[in-house]
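Review form for a predicted model. The reviewer records the input and the model, then writes brief findings.
Reviewer: anonymous (R2)
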Amino acid sequence: MPPRRVITGRSQEPRRRYAEELRLLRAERDLSLRQLAETVGWDPSLFGKLESGATLGSPEVAQALDGFYGTPGLLLAMWEVAVADPKQFKEQYRRYMELEQEAVALWHYSPSAPPGLLQTRGYAREALAAGGLVGDDLDQQVEARVGRRLLLERDDAPPLRAIFSEAVVRTPLLDKQAWKEQLAYLLEVMERPRVTIYVLPFSAGLHGLRNTAVMFLRQLDGVTVVYTENDERGELIEEPGRVEYFQRSYEAVRDLALSPAESRAFILRMLEELRCEPSS
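Model under review:
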Protein backbone atom coordinates (compact mmCIF):
# COMPACT_ATOMS: atom_id res chain seq x y z
CA MET A 1 0.00 0.00 0.00
CA PRO A 2 1.47 3.41 -0.94
CA PRO A 3 2.12 5.76 1.97
CA ARG A 4 -0.55 8.34 2.62
CA ARG A 5 0.61 11.77 1.61
CA VAL A 6 0.68 14.63 4.05
CA ILE A 7 -1.89 16.99 2.65
CA THR A 8 -1.19 19.93 4.98
CA GLY A 9 -0.20 22.95 2.93
CA ARG A 10 -2.68 22.29 0.14
CA SER A 11 -6.22 23.60 0.08
CA GLN A 12 -7.83 23.69 3.51
CA GLU A 13 -11.35 23.73 2.08
CA PRO A 14 -12.64 20.13 2.34
CA ARG A 15 -14.33 19.94 -1.05
CA ARG A 16 -11.30 21.29 -2.90
CA ARG A 17 -8.93 19.15 -0.88
CA TYR A 18 -10.88 16.03 -1.80
CA ALA A 19 -10.82 16.99 -5.49
CA GLU A 20 -7.09 17.72 -5.28
CA GLU A 21 -6.37 14.35 -3.69
CA LEU A 22 -8.27 12.56 -6.44
CA ARG A 23 -6.34 14.41 -9.15
CA LEU A 24 -2.98 13.59 -7.56
CA LEU A 25 -3.81 9.92 -7.07
CA ARG A 26 -4.79 9.55 -10.72
CA ALA A 27 -1.68 11.45 -11.86
CA GLU A 28 0.52 9.08 -9.86
CA ARG A 29 -0.97 6.16 -11.81
CA ASP A 30 -0.60 8.09 -15.10
CA LEU A 31 -4.22 7.32 -16.04
CA SER A 32 -6.68 9.20 -18.20
CA LEU A 33 -10.22 9.76 -16.95
CA ARG A 34 -11.44 7.17 -19.44
CA GLN A 35 -8.91 4.58 -18.30
CA LEU A 36 -9.90 5.17 -14.68
CA ALA A 37 -13.60 4.86 -15.56
CA GLU A 38 -13.06 1.63 -17.48
CA THR A 39 -11.30 0.13 -14.48
CA VAL A 40 -13.50 1.38 -11.64
CA GLY A 41 -16.82 1.27 -13.47
CA TRP A 42 -18.36 4.78 -13.56
CA ASP A 43 -18.72 7.28 -16.39
CA PRO A 44 -15.58 9.35 -17.16
CA SER A 45 -17.59 12.57 -16.82
CA LEU A 46 -18.27 11.76 -13.16
CA PHE A 47 -14.57 11.52 -12.37
CA GLY A 48 -13.97 14.78 -14.22
CA LYS A 49 -16.59 16.48 -12.06
CA LEU A 50 -15.13 14.95 -8.91
CA GLU A 51 -11.65 16.20 -9.74
CA SER A 52 -12.87 19.70 -10.63
CA GLY A 53 -14.91 19.94 -7.44
CA ALA A 54 -18.19 20.26 -9.34
CA THR A 55 -19.63 17.33 -7.40
CA LEU A 56 -18.71 15.16 -4.43
CA GLY A 57 -20.32 12.03 -5.79
CA SER A 58 -21.47 9.27 -3.49
CA PRO A 59 -19.80 7.31 -0.65
CA GLU A 60 -19.84 4.24 -2.91
CA VAL A 61 -17.61 6.04 -5.43
CA ALA A 62 -15.21 7.13 -2.66
CA GLN A 63 -15.03 3.55 -1.37
CA ALA A 64 -14.41 2.17 -4.86
CA LEU A 65 -11.58 4.63 -5.41
CA ASP A 66 -10.11 3.79 -1.99
CA GLY A 67 -10.00 0.17 -3.10
CA PHE A 68 -8.50 0.97 -6.49
CA TYR A 69 -5.80 3.32 -5.19
CA GLY A 70 -4.97 1.24 -2.13
CA THR A 71 -5.89 3.98 0.35
CA PRO A 72 -8.44 2.19 2.57
CA GLY A 73 -10.70 4.66 4.30
CA LEU A 74 -8.78 7.81 3.31
CA LEU A 75 -10.98 9.03 0.47
CA LEU A 76 -14.18 8.02 2.23
CA ALA A 77 -13.11 10.00 5.31
CA MET A 78 -12.30 13.04 3.16
CA TRP A 79 -15.66 12.69 1.41
CA GLU A 80 -17.48 12.63 4.79
CA VAL A 81 -15.67 15.78 5.95
CA ALA A 82 -16.49 17.57 2.67
CA VAL A 83 -20.17 16.63 2.81
CA ALA A 84 -20.45 17.84 6.43
CA ASP A 85 -18.78 21.20 5.69
CA PRO A 86 -21.36 24.05 6.10
CA LYS A 87 -19.91 25.80 3.04
CA GLN A 88 -20.95 22.79 1.02
CA PHE A 89 -24.62 23.76 1.28
CA LYS A 90 -24.04 27.18 -0.32
CA GLU A 91 -21.90 25.62 -3.04
CA GLN A 92 -24.58 23.02 -3.71
CA TYR A 93 -27.18 25.74 -4.17
CA ARG A 94 -24.93 27.58 -6.63
CA ARG A 95 -24.46 24.33 -8.49
CA TYR A 96 -28.22 23.79 -8.45
CA MET A 97 -28.74 27.19 -10.08
CA GLU A 98 -26.27 26.26 -12.83
CA LEU A 99 -28.02 22.94 -13.42
CA GLU A 100 -31.42 24.66 -13.51
CA GLN A 101 -30.27 26.89 -16.36
CA GLU A 102 -28.92 23.87 -18.28
CA ALA A 103 -31.89 21.56 -17.65
CA VAL A 104 -33.98 20.15 -20.48
CA ALA A 105 -36.85 19.27 -18.09
CA LEU A 106 -37.80 20.36 -14.56
CA TRP A 107 -40.00 18.65 -11.98
CA HIS A 108 -40.87 20.26 -8.65
CA TYR A 109 -42.74 19.35 -5.53
CA SER A 110 -43.48 22.15 -3.06
CA PRO A 111 -45.01 21.51 0.37
CA SER A 112 -45.28 25.14 1.52
CA ALA A 113 -44.41 27.72 -1.17
CA PRO A 114 -44.36 28.09 -4.94
CA PRO A 115 -40.92 27.27 -6.38
CA GLY A 116 -38.76 30.32 -7.04
CA LEU A 117 -39.36 29.99 -10.79
CA LEU A 118 -43.08 30.69 -10.24
CA GLN A 119 -42.94 33.46 -7.62
CA THR A 120 -44.02 37.01 -8.33
CA ARG A 121 -41.95 39.94 -7.09
CA GLY A 122 -44.43 40.58 -4.26
CA TYR A 123 -44.37 36.98 -3.09
CA ALA A 124 -40.57 36.78 -3.28
CA ARG A 125 -40.17 39.98 -1.27
CA GLU A 126 -42.47 38.89 1.56
CA ALA A 127 -41.02 35.38 1.67
CA LEU A 128 -37.41 36.58 1.74
CA ALA A 129 -38.20 39.28 4.31
CA ALA A 130 -39.79 36.61 6.52
CA GLY A 131 -36.43 34.84 6.35
CA GLY A 132 -34.68 37.87 7.82
CA LEU A 133 -33.38 39.75 4.77
CA VAL A 134 -33.59 43.55 4.82
CA GLY A 135 -32.40 46.57 2.84
CA ASP A 136 -30.10 46.13 -0.13
CA ASP A 137 -29.66 42.41 0.55
CA LEU A 138 -33.42 41.94 0.30
CA ASP A 139 -33.66 43.98 -2.92
CA GLN A 140 -30.84 42.02 -4.55
CA GLN A 141 -32.28 38.64 -3.61
CA VAL A 142 -35.75 39.61 -4.84
CA GLU A 143 -34.38 40.65 -8.22
CA ALA A 144 -32.28 37.50 -8.44
CA ARG A 145 -35.29 35.29 -7.71
CA VAL A 146 -37.61 37.09 -10.12
CA GLY A 147 -34.89 37.00 -12.76
CA ARG A 148 -35.01 33.21 -12.71
CA ARG A 149 -38.44 33.38 -14.37
CA LEU A 150 -36.70 34.35 -17.62
CA LEU A 151 -35.81 30.68 -17.97
CA LEU A 152 -39.47 29.90 -18.67
CA GLU A 153 -39.75 32.68 -21.23
CA ARG A 154 -36.97 31.43 -23.50
CA ASP A 155 -37.86 29.97 -26.90
CA ASP A 156 -36.25 26.74 -25.76
CA ALA A 157 -37.75 26.84 -22.25
CA PRO A 158 -37.62 23.42 -20.58
CA PRO A 159 -40.92 21.72 -19.71
CA LEU A 160 -41.85 22.41 -16.09
CA ARG A 161 -44.05 20.14 -13.99
CA ALA A 162 -44.86 21.52 -10.54
CA ILE A 163 -46.90 19.87 -7.80
CA PHE A 164 -48.10 22.10 -4.94
CA SER A 165 -49.49 21.02 -1.64
CA GLU A 166 -52.89 22.60 -1.05
CA ALA A 167 -51.12 24.54 1.72
CA VAL A 168 -49.28 26.55 -0.96
CA VAL A 169 -52.48 28.10 -2.31
CA ARG A 170 -54.19 28.42 1.08
CA THR A 171 -51.38 30.25 2.90
CA PRO A 172 -51.80 33.90 1.91
CA LEU A 173 -49.37 36.77 2.01
CA LEU A 174 -49.97 39.60 4.47
CA ASP A 175 -50.26 41.87 1.45
CA LYS A 176 -53.62 40.82 -0.03
CA GLN A 177 -52.99 42.52 -3.37
CA ALA A 178 -49.64 40.77 -3.73
CA TRP A 179 -51.35 37.47 -2.92
CA LYS A 180 -53.98 38.04 -5.62
CA GLU A 181 -51.19 38.77 -8.09
CA GLN A 182 -49.41 35.54 -7.14
CA LEU A 183 -52.51 33.40 -7.67
CA ALA A 184 -53.27 35.19 -10.95
CA TYR A 185 -49.70 34.58 -12.09
CA LEU A 186 -50.03 30.86 -11.43
CA LEU A 187 -53.17 30.79 -13.56
CA GLU A 188 -51.34 32.70 -16.28
CA VAL A 189 -48.36 30.34 -16.47
CA MET A 190 -50.69 27.33 -16.48
CA GLU A 191 -51.79 28.48 -19.93
CA ARG A 192 -48.30 27.95 -21.28
CA PRO A 193 -47.89 24.66 -23.15
CA ARG A 194 -44.67 23.77 -21.36
CA VAL A 195 -45.93 24.38 -17.81
CA THR A 196 -48.07 21.85 -15.94
CA ILE A 197 -49.23 22.49 -12.38
CA TYR A 198 -50.94 20.03 -10.03
CA VAL A 199 -52.49 20.76 -6.64
CA LEU A 200 -52.13 18.01 -4.05
CA PRO A 201 -55.22 18.23 -1.79
CA PHE A 202 -55.07 17.77 1.96
CA SER A 203 -57.37 14.78 1.49
CA ALA A 204 -54.48 12.91 -0.16
CA GLY A 205 -53.15 12.25 3.34
CA LEU A 206 -49.56 11.48 4.33
CA HIS A 207 -46.91 10.79 1.70
CA GLY A 208 -43.14 10.47 1.38
CA LEU A 209 -42.40 14.08 0.39
CA ARG A 210 -44.64 15.90 2.88
CA ASN A 211 -41.80 17.77 4.65
CA THR A 212 -39.40 18.25 1.76
CA ALA A 213 -39.27 20.43 -1.34
CA VAL A 214 -37.85 18.40 -4.22
CA MET A 215 -36.54 19.61 -7.56
CA PHE A 216 -35.57 17.26 -10.42
CA LEU A 217 -33.29 18.64 -13.13
CA ARG A 218 -32.92 16.47 -16.22
CA GLN A 219 -29.78 17.29 -18.17
CA LEU A 220 -29.01 17.09 -21.87
CA ASP A 221 -26.99 13.90 -21.37
CA GLY A 222 -30.05 12.19 -19.87
CA VAL A 223 -28.79 12.35 -16.27
CA THR A 224 -31.27 13.57 -13.65
CA VAL A 225 -30.03 15.48 -10.60
CA VAL A 226 -32.20 16.04 -7.52
CA TYR A 227 -32.08 19.00 -5.14
CA THR A 228 -33.95 18.60 -1.85
CA GLU A 229 -34.58 21.39 0.61
CA ASN A 230 -36.19 21.84 4.00
CA ASP A 231 -36.03 24.53 6.70
CA GLU A 232 -32.54 23.48 7.80
CA ARG A 233 -30.56 22.57 4.69
CA GLY A 234 -30.42 21.79 1.02
CA GLU A 235 -28.79 18.80 -0.63
CA LEU A 236 -27.80 18.14 -4.22
CA ILE A 237 -28.17 14.44 -5.06
CA GLU A 238 -26.55 12.77 -8.06
CA GLU A 239 -26.28 9.16 -6.88
CA PRO A 240 -28.56 7.13 -9.23
CA GLY A 241 -30.05 4.99 -6.46
CA ARG A 242 -31.15 7.97 -4.38
CA VAL A 243 -32.39 9.84 -7.46
CA GLU A 244 -34.55 6.82 -8.35
CA TYR A 245 -35.95 6.73 -4.80
CA PHE A 246 -37.09 10.35 -5.01
CA GLN A 247 -38.49 9.82 -8.50
CA ARG A 248 -40.68 6.99 -7.22
CA SER A 249 -41.86 9.17 -4.32
CA TYR A 250 -42.61 12.02 -6.73
CA GLU A 251 -44.63 9.83 -9.08
CA ALA A 252 -46.65 8.53 -6.13
CA VAL A 253 -47.45 12.11 -5.11
CA ARG A 254 -48.45 13.02 -8.66
CA ASP A 255 -50.88 10.10 -8.72
CA LEU A 256 -52.57 11.56 -5.60
CA ALA A 257 -52.83 15.09 -7.00
CA LEU A 258 -55.72 16.76 -8.79
CA SER A 259 -55.54 16.78 -12.57
CA PRO A 260 -54.15 19.93 -14.24
CA ALA A 261 -57.70 21.02 -15.17
CA GLU A 262 -58.98 20.37 -11.63
CA SER A 263 -55.95 22.16 -10.21
CA ARG A 264 -56.58 25.22 -12.36
CA ALA A 265 -60.20 25.30 -11.24
CA PHE A 266 -59.09 25.03 -7.60
CA ILE A 267 -56.68 27.97 -7.86
CA LEU A 268 -59.23 30.03 -9.80
CA ARG A 269 -61.82 29.40 -7.08
CA MET A 270 -59.34 30.57 -4.42
CA LEU A 271 -58.67 33.76 -6.38
CA GLU A 272 -62.36 34.46 -6.95
CA GLU A 273 -63.11 34.00 -3.25
CA LEU A 274 -60.33 36.45 -2.44
CA ARG A 275 -61.68 39.00 -4.90
CA CYS A 276 -65.13 38.73 -3.34
CA GLU A 277 -63.88 39.52 0.15
CA PRO A 278 -64.88 43.00 1.36
CA SER A 279 -62.09 45.58 1.31
CA SER A 280 -60.78 46.46 4.76
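Findings: The CA atoms of residues 64 and 264 lie 49 Å apart.
Further findings: The chain has two domains: 14-84, 96-115+157-275.
Recommendation: see findings above.
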